[in-house]
């Protein structure tokens, strides 16, 4: 596993997940409404981001677990890009999760 890139991706998902879970309830509701999902689903996805980052961290010692976490996070980011496209967000907001997905996929390279 590419440890330098994995470190960047781990920090990204950890910070994003924690920021989303610790945001005010009003901000969480607004984001969930924007994406057309329930507040519960929004919080679950935020938790998955944190768990994925933890999976990548453990994957530094146990590579198969890191690969599984990376695959899950890539799929999650592709789904986020699709939601952003459906919500008619700008091109930059659609491209960002795809860039993160590519970086996450890069962590699987030795």
TrEMBL record:
The record describes its membrane topology as:
Multi-pass membrane protein
> Where in the cell does this protein reside?
Membrane
Q: Which residues cross the membrane?
A: 47-79, 91-109
Q: Give UniProt keywords alphabetically.
A: Membrane, Transmembrane, Transmembrane helix
Q: Mind telling me which InterPro entries this protein's record contains? A: DoxX
- Provide the primary localization: membrane
Q: A Pfam family this protein belongs to? A: DoxX_2
> What name does this protein carry?
DoxX family protein
- The organism encoding this protein is Actinoplanes subglobosus
